[in-house]
Specification:
CATH architecture: Orthogonal Bundle
Keywords: WD repeat
Distance between the termini: 21 Å
CATH superfamily: BEACH domain
CATH topology: Neurobeachin, Chain: A, domain 1
Number of strands: 0
Protein name: NBEL1 protein
Order of helices and strands: HHHHHHHH
Helix content: 25-40%
Pfam families: Beach
GO cellular component, one term: membrane
InterPro entries: BEACH_dom, BEACH_dom_sf, BEACH_Domain
CATH class: Mainly Alpha
Structural class: mainly alpha
Length: 225
């Protein structure tokens, strides 16, 4: 499979799916759900220029330190200053994981069975609207501003536009400050529709830049780093 990928006989998407499978990740277990990378950092431009390296996330760094400020002022500070009085817990950079069951339900809340699973997790109701997945640009900005949020993506971001739409009409509440009702996911300006977002996002995954740097992220998640 590696050789096929290197020879470009299979796509980046196919290679990541197969890597996830070989690593024991499966759609049948939310705790070991397939994991895909954030690949872009431009969610505000009117047009997405895949020939411009500046639109892509740095795939050589964990998502928690893509923002250099977080790396220096928070992640390293926490590691260097953490001491467990009982000597049981080792020093650590991140208190959460880049992929977990709650994170999968967070992204896929608008489609079953994830809606029901989310409600069960929240003791019979939807979580506070401000904590819902309601905007792709805002979610990326949260990665930049909040060093505690280190979620990567799920495969659905590259093939399943329906998860971005509230087709079942669930009452997901409204944001506290803006009073905006949480409904369909707000898309980047360069996406005209959920289908357009998926199409362009998939093109970004298969772009020359990502093809040349994807191995760096793979080393972080599946490899020796």
């Amino acid at each position: 499979v590696l050789q096929k990928w290197v020879n470009r006989e299979i796509s980046n998407f196919d290679y990541l799916i197969q890597l996830n499978t070989m690593a024991g990740r499966t759609y049948n277990d939310l705790a070991q759900y397939p994991v895909f990378p954030w690949i872009l950092q431009d969610y505000t431009s009117e047009e997405l220029d895949l020939n411009n390296p500046a639109v892509f996330r740095d795939l050589s760094k964990p998502i928690g330190v893509v923002n250099e400020k977080n790396a220096k002022t928070f992640v390293l500070f926490r590691y260097e200053n953490f001491e467990d009085p009982l000597g049981i817990i080792d020093k650590f950079h991140y208190g959460t994981h880049y992929s977990n069951a709650a994170g999968v339900m967070h992204y896929l809340i608008r489609v079953e069975p994830f809606t029901t699973l989310h409600i069960q997790l929240q003791s019979g109701r939807f979580d506070c609207a401000d904590r819902q997945f309601h905007s792709i640009p805002a979610t990326w900005q949260a990665r930049m501003d909040n060093p505690n949020d280190v979620k990567e993506l799920t495969p659905e971001f590259f093939y399943f536009p329906e998860f971005l739409e509230n087709q079942n009409g669930f009452n997901l509440g409204q944001l506290q400050i803006s009073k905006e009702i949480v409904n369909d996911v707000i898309l980047p300006k360069w996406a005209r529709s959920p289908e357009d977002f998926i199409c362009k996002h998939r093109k970004a995954l298969e772009s020359e830049y990502v093809s040349a740097h994807l191995h760096e992220w793979i080393d972080l998640i599946f490899g020796y780093k």
